[in-house]
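<instruction>
Derive structure tokens from the sequence
<data>
Labelled lines for chain and fold
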Amino acid sequence: MLTVDFSRFPLAAGDRVLDLGCGAGRHAFECYRRGAQVVALDRNAEEIREVAKWFAAMKEAGEAPAGATATAMEGDALALPFPDESFDVVIISEVMEHIPDDKGVLAEMVRVLKPGGRIAVTVPRYGPEKVCWTLSDAYHEVEGGHIRIYRGDELLDKMREAGLAPYGTHHAHGLHSPYWWLKCAFGVDNDKALPVRAYHKLLVWDIMKKPKATRVAEQLLNPVIGKSFVAYATKPHAPAGEQDRATAAAASAEERA
């Protein structure tokens, strides 16, 4: 189940991609299938081991084209172990709502993104998320849980402040909001409640079969109650004047040395 829409977020074979806070690896796997050179990074060692196993299985099964590469590694989103301008693409999906220093994470992503590179950020949408917080404290008051709810304009402003140029947004997973409302209403750890079990079966059926009826329903629901807010942006090239000043400064430093 992808949150990033790759028809709006083009990915070319050979692109170097960072899936930051990759979790179970869903976006990293899709990028690998599309021929990218993928680095999936997360602080959770157990999930990274599982992602690495799936990468190996995909390679063995021939699911990735020639030239595609995939690496899974542990790391800290606030201190990425990569040089400046290392990646063509960065994806961070359903992660920033967990991190106190979200501006620091954005700064690190911009640092490792090449000029002209693309970034996709997804977070829980304000309205559906607010319903969950209202129904259940246990939904978010857990270790590593959600610490903030973003409004779309707030996230876009923070992306602009970090030096990015947003170019598109949309909402995703409209069918999933009611499921989480039911979970919050009946208890986030209560998977046995009949409404929760029944709706979960519907979601599994939708994910596995992708019937036209639910696909159309989700398209209609996404603008209204889509669970996720998705924003796409690019990292602008430095203006010519700034590039000239940087080049002159570097030349001056070399002369002094």
